[in-house]
Amino acid sequence: MKATTDMKATTDMKVTTDTKVTTDTKATTDMKATADKKGAKSARRVAVLAVMAALAMVLSLLESYLPSPAPVPGLKLGLANIITLVLLAKFSLSAVLVVSVVRSVLTAVFAGAVSAMLFSLAGGVASCLVMWLFYKKMNLGFSLIGVSIIGAATHNTAQIMVAMALMKDTALLHYLPLLLLSSILTGFVVGFCGVKISLINMDPIC
Fold first, then answer.
1. Which of 7, 76, 79, 90 has the fewest CB atoms found within 10 Å of its own CB?
2. Cα distances (Å, whole numbers) of residue 174 to 92, 138, 142, 178, 186
3. pLDDT digits (tens, 9 = 90+) for 33-42
4. What is the domain range of residue 165?
5. What DSSP state is assigned to residue 66?
6. How many Å apart are CA 161 and CA 119, to the nearest integer?
7. pLDDT, mean of residues 2-22
8. What angle do the packed helices 144-167 and 81-90 form, to 10 degrees?
9. Residue 92, Cβ neighbours under 10 Å: how many?
10. What is the CATH number of the domain that holds 87?
11. Number of domains in the chain
């Protein structure tokens, strides 16, 4: 009987050990699969953000060859902000800021207008932060179009502030009312385009 008991105990221990090994192996496999899935999603996310930055840069470069929509110095539609709005709706603030900064730097380099980079960076970063606050944090019910108008106004204001600081000329403030008024039109156009594009399902990569 003792030998039988010992054999049964040995068998039970072997079964327990085998079960534990199987469980550990399954857990390891599941963890590896989860890590691989997260890695693939992260890679897709980086690729999409790179494409977005490239598109924003192309839009900025194309816009530099277009005539101003109104006879106001420095006024542009801000077509690259369409990409910013799409990112704002689908991605995190950090992603929006990274793409905005990369776009500003690359556009300045390729356009040979490095001296204008500071204006673009100031306007881009300021508008991103303000739009994110109004759209994601303040819960005031602003649509992307409304947020786009606010972003356009912020962008123009930031650029005027930088110009005043660099040129030490407060007379530049005289342009601000015209720029703010034009922000309604440019912000609406950009916002409308952003709404249409943001309807594309990007949930698997966001």
1. 7
2. 36, 31, 29, 8, 19
3. 555 666 676 8
4. 36-205
5. S
6. 9
7. 54
8. 130
9. 14
10. 1.10.1760.20
11. 1
